[in-house]
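FOLDING PROBLEM:
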Amino acid sequence: MPPFDPASPDFLADPYPAYAELRARGRTHYYEPSDQWLVPHHADVAALLRDRRLGRSYGHRFTHEEFGRAEPPAGHEPFHELNDHGMLELEPPDHTRIRRLVSKAFTPRTVERLVPYVRQLAAELVGRLVEEGGGDLLTAVAEPLPVAVIAEMLGVPERDRPLLRPWSAAICAMYELNPGEEVARRAVTASLEFSAYLRELIAVRREKPGEDLVSALIAAHDDGEKLTEAEMVATCALLLNAGHEATVNSTVNGWHALFRHPARLAELRSDRSLLPTAVEELMRYDTPLQLFERWVLDPVEIGGTTLPRGAEVALLFGSANHDPAVFAAPGELDLARRDNPHISFGAGIHYCIGAPLARIELTASLTALLDLAPGLAPAGEPVRKPNFVIRGLEGLPVMV
């Protein structure tokens, strides 16, 4: 095996050289520690995201026993009750029905109405950072902006918003490779608390609908079909978790990359027309979601290797986004890169429904920091989170 080692601090600091070795050595690699087939090439990752022989789940076709998998521990049920009803974990026909209903509420117009709020909030957060002479970019700007935006969209009262990030962090820790029992315990506790909170919020909106997304989800219907309460709770949790997790990490990963490439940062400061391509390039260059898992529902052949039904595939987004077959000089940060088919938002039926909102948030925070903190600079070496799948920093100390 090439040096693919998610437990290694050196690998976590910079996994991209190991990805290059994986790509050079073949199209699939069996990784015994997680019992997965690693897929490192962009063409394969993009194709398999759209291949219906693979699925995010298998319960719509097989029992655990039929699929050769053990049932999840009974004590993990609250996590699975919340997680497995979300459309990210479902396959057609349930996925099709739920995504169609959610799309009726999560419309482009709904997102566009948030633009002034996002820009104003970004300016306020950066303004406070400047007043304080610097601080942690993660806790001062990167984290509060998307959390507040998705909470505003869903109608979560401001007083309750500090609850959201800890719940999300505990639940998302379960997406790492081989999470331990203590991780599962925290995720179960967070799932119970988060579900109870969302049920109460939904009950309030049933009695008194508002202009928020929860009210729109309650009202959404299609040929008599509506979301069940379990589906609504899972959808709200998914939007809250996915709606800020990637944006938080894209922001700090992106600024960390800019600080390490001062010439590129100088280009961006002098030419704001680069903003649209810069946002895409920063998401490609240090990908916030490094891996996306799929189950093999029907045998699939990749580069001469047949993966059997029941196998699990690890689609390496970070590797795909650095594939020289697709990206010229992928190891270079090119803020003017035009041909940039990165897959940081996925592809196929599970393409991120919140991608337009994430782009708005990233553009707003970049703009506010460039405008209001023109001398923004690192104030120390950041510590990387000991995570592989969700790639981010513990903090990013800055001075203004």
